[in-house]
Write a structure and sequence with these properties.
The protein has 466 residues and is an all-alpha fold. The chain folds into 2 domains: 3-89 and 103-255, no CATH class; 294-464, no CATH class. Helix content is 70%, strand content 2%. The chain has helices at 3-26, 34-59, 65-85, 95-98, 105-131, 137-153, 162-168, 184-196, 201-204, 206-225, 230-241, 244-251, 257-277, 280-294, 300-305, 308-315, 317-337, 357-366, 373-383, 394-412, 417-421, 426-445, 458-464; strands at 341-344, 347-350. The protein has a two-stranded antiparallel sheet with strand order 1-2. A hairpin with a 2-residue loop joins strand 1 (341-344) and strand 2 (347-350). Helix 10 runs parallel beside helix 13. The longest helix has 27 residues, at 105-131. It is globular.
Amino acid sequence: MSAWAGLLASIALPWIAGAATVVALRGAAGRHELPLAAGYGFLIGVLAATLVLRAASFAGSPWHPMLLDAAMVAIATIAGTVAFRARASAPAGDPVAGSLAGETAPYRWLFAAALALLAVRILGLAIEVAVSPLRAYDAWGHWSTKARVWLEAGRLVPFVSGGTWLAQGDPGLYTDSNPSHPGTLPLLQVWVARHTGGWNEPMVNAPWLAMVVAFALAFYAQARAAGARASLAMVATWLVVSMPVLGQHVAQSGAADLFMGAAYAMAAMAVWRWSVTREPGMALVAALSVAAGAWIKIEGLLWMATLVPAVVVALHRRAGLILVGAAVAAFAAYLALGPERQPMLGYVLRNRPVNVLPTLILQVYTLDHWHLAAYAFVAVAAWRWRVLLAPRHAPATLTVFCALGLVVVVFFFSSAAFGVADETLGNRFILHLMPTLVFYTLVLLLDPGAPAGDQPSAQATKAADA
């Protein structure tokens, strides 16, 4: 197998297996939203591929491409069989894809223009990825170190802190700048390298390009499901993919922040959609997205925790609001009574703030890192303030409130404040949130009333208003 054929197989097989899984989980509804299946399919396929590598290492089996591909084919076959059986109960037609033909000519031209701009953007990123070695510090300091060692060892070997590595002097132990980071993305690079015949830096970076394509598909599909017409959904997709920092993390592949931002947004969009439709398949897709995000980076646990109030408020409105209030009260109590320093998930929590507001304003509102996304969010939220806590929008609003609270805590009340001040952390951490914030802004821009086929069920409405 040539290196290019191996690269294609390493990306396509997990993607197909993941997409088939999404269609199978959603049953009859799944075949009507192929962009959604393709978008979420890559994220779920990545999770499956890395779990296969973990299982093989645990079992002592070699990471041979044929064995790895056989596992992906098995997953795709099982999921595809389940999805095929659901076809009989699926109504005819594809309302998401077919609706574009019903729009007027100006809207169709707008759709085509936005799609062309999106294609040019992704093509430019593809060229950048194809000719670039690992350049970002995080890539060769935190992530690809593990990938290279595991590739050469042919199995998972432990990474420990520098102090432990020096103290024990064990040749079976390894260290890098952040040995506690999860191994999901390094294993993804191992997956590609095993298929392409060895370590090739442009090739092992290909999943970052695939991730931005998958995210664009998922974002478009969820925007359409939220009620946006095809042209508006495509314009919004192009706008979010064109943000400079997001593009930088594709071009300088290897770090985890792009995957973290995409996984969090995809999980949030799925949770918010489930809160409206109560579709069991969407709940399962959301759960898998949450699992993938939690295993990408240490901070993934924190980001995914901000989705808990959305689920609770969707099930019981008062309980969700009480949960958020309790979290705010607990943090206030920590500031008043807690220890000065408290280690937590790689950070050191402090009970006295560090003023990084000037740097934060510069990064978010002054420099062209995020276009006008931050301005649009503030303006639209202020305009739509009356519906922010309406049953349809409350889960999304509480998610965004908790996510912004997480940013405030990390930036102002933790050891990360110094990374914000010297401009080495701020934009990377904001990238985890910004795609979600863009989608939330889009949802608020849409008609607050739900489309006819997207109304919450009577049981869901009763629970939300309880």
